[in-house]
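To illustrate this point, we now present one chain and its tokenised fold:
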Amino acid sequence: MRQGRIVGVGDVRGFSGAGTETIDAGGGLITPGFIDAHVHPVTGGLKLARCSLYDADDADEALAKVADYSQLHPDPDWIWGGGWSLAWFEGGTPSAQALDRVTGNRPAMLYARDGHGVWVNSAALERAGVTEDTADPSDGRIERYPDGSPQGTLHEGAMAFVERVVPPFTATDWDQALWAGQAYLLACGITGWQDADVQPEQEAAYLTVAGRGQLVANVVGALWWERERGLEQIEDLLARRARMAPGYRPTAVKLMLDGIAENFTAAMLEPYRNRDGQPTGGIDFIDGDLLKTIVERLDRLGFQCHFHAIGSRAVRHALDALATLQTGSDRRHHIAHLQVVDPDDVPRFGRLGAIANCQPLWACNEPQMTELTLPFLGASSAANQYPFAEIAQGGGPLAMGSDWPVSTADVYEQVDVAVTRTHPDFRERPPLGPDQSLTLSQALKAFTAGSARVNRTEAERGRIAVGMIADLVVADRNPFQNRPVAGTKVRHTIVGGVPVFSAS
């Protein structure tokens, strides 16, 4: 490597000289730097710095962590954080009363790992004025007891009731959150990413940190589309896109089309059942016809569309919108999550050039799938989850992202699931759609070259070749020769030829 670029591949002993630093891979695999096509570094870093439940294993441990945090941090007016799992609670809905016992009268708001719901205590509900008389918003739901009183879990748009009364974080808080998120991702071998939800305060952190030359990773920001507003917000997006900094380009727009299956807000073509046994089709956060207009306008202005689509109807609406674009558009529009895809829509990825932005860790029979998803899905939906292999076979381009902090940013753990369709902690369970397994080469390529294409950096990143920027990851072993893939650890991360993380 010289001046940040690769100058030789293979036997490179002739390239060494005075001042050369040598890293011995020790038989470990060397890959291009991983590029995470869907991740939330700033909010992830902020949650790590507050009341973090990400290391908890169950509800009891989560409550113990909240109690410890409350005692160790008595001064802040609110307890704020996240990381609880839906699978820890009956129906995926923790109660305010359970949280009251460890927080007292101090309001508390804790995000679920997936970010689609919050657990709040009675004091938070009182501060927000949420009662049995509060109507559900059009894009969310208040979980309720039979008498209509709020139970303590707020889904999707209902989170805003409490979010509006939480004291705002400072610019220093956001800067430190980006620092923490970047450090964590670099330790996972992630040298670039697309931030899937850049709000103005997070954007300010990127501009500040990048302006100081301290943004190590190469980042594309996906600016949040406010579904409460209309096309008039495009002028704001254009102004925000103009504010770039070294290593940070806010050139994408995040379009949230639906919620998640576990809380019955995923938009499905095939109706599924809620916990009361009533059929539901979920919620369209953006009307399908309006979406076509939005996407056409954004594409014409040079924005990349980054869709959140869990349910089959949401996926279809995204593909229908892309089908209206003029032939030759090369904005690298991509659809994230893809939990349920109707078989008729699978070949459309290849025909339209729509990039499948896969979160592989979820494609397995772990408790959230078997207890909170499969019992409620229709037969066709259950059989057509995460069809990564079929999309690839049909010519659909693949990229991969972790969605951290929703799930781990450990690339090798995610890739393991993509290959085996089983979770490392639940090997005894049958694979989820084993015919949708990817090869290890396919999965690693999606996390490198595939995601580089999403970020339009494939000319310089995502491959090991002469002239490419020297973003590299050294693993502790070779997963092609040592299975399982999960358990492979990152030993060194190199960005632009400079070591930025070492496990030692």
